[in-house]
Amino acid sequence: MTPDSIKKLVALLSQLPSLGPRQATRVAFHIAGMPTSEVTELARVINETARLKRCTQCFRIDELTTGRCTICANPRRDQASIIIVEKETDVLTLEKTKAIKGRYLVLGDLPKDGVLTTQQRTRLAALKKSIADLPGGIASEIIIGFSPTTYGDLNAEIVAGQIKGITQKISRLGRGIPTGGEIEFADEQTLDAAIKNRN
Ligand SMILES: [Zn+2]
């Protein structure tokens, strides 16, 4: 009864974050009901994102220049100061404050059981290497920029253990953000205060 093309679209959409099978089905039928020109435009824009790549240094997705993103490749950014965040969207939120003078490391969705994934260990290893390559071979500060949730706190301790010895200072962002709150949903003023009051 359901056309094959809808079934295929639902299967693909169901893999997206926060889209369950029912929502995916609704979206699929919505797309199928859109004017052809809009469907074509949607497909074209999605296709365009395929040329974006993951930065080899901070692992966020961006238009890359020589393997690095626009933030990492910016000579005005302090390469010795790093803020470790969970998600790409956290970078966007923090960038709005203009208070981050250094660079980022995007770790990816934090594990709930406190065991870092292989991908996360690889990213932390890349961070260590990039710090070892700095003049002096040590970071001035690494800020752990996880949301102050239960698993954010748990993972902050684990990550702090991993980065000991590669930085002069480890600090934690989040004072000021309500406990249990997510960076993504904090307003700019709160975040700005959380960055300035890090400890
Ligand atoms: Zn980057």
Report on this model:
This protein is of the alpha/beta class and 199 residues long. The protein folds into two domains: 4-51, Helicase, Ruva Protein, domain 3, CATH 1.10.8.420; 55-196, Dna Topoisomerase Vi A Subunit, Chain: A, domain 2 (3-Layer(aba) Sandwich). Helix content is 42%, strand content 10%. The protein is built from seven helices and six strands, in the order αααβββαβαβαβα. A four-stranded parallel sheet has the order 4-3-5-6. A two-stranded antiparallel ribbon has the order 1-2. The radius of gyration is 20 Å and the shape is globular. The protein starts with a helix and ends with a helix. Bound molecules: zinc ion. Zinc ion (ZN) is lined by residues 55, 57-58, 60, 68-69, 71-72.
Features:
alpha/beta, 199 residues, 2 domains, 7 helices, single chain, Helicase, Ruva Protein, domain 3
Strand content: 5-15%
CATH topology of the largest domain: Dna Topoisomerase Vi A Subunit, Chain: A, domain 2
Characterize the quaternary organization of these chains: single chain
Count structural domains: 2
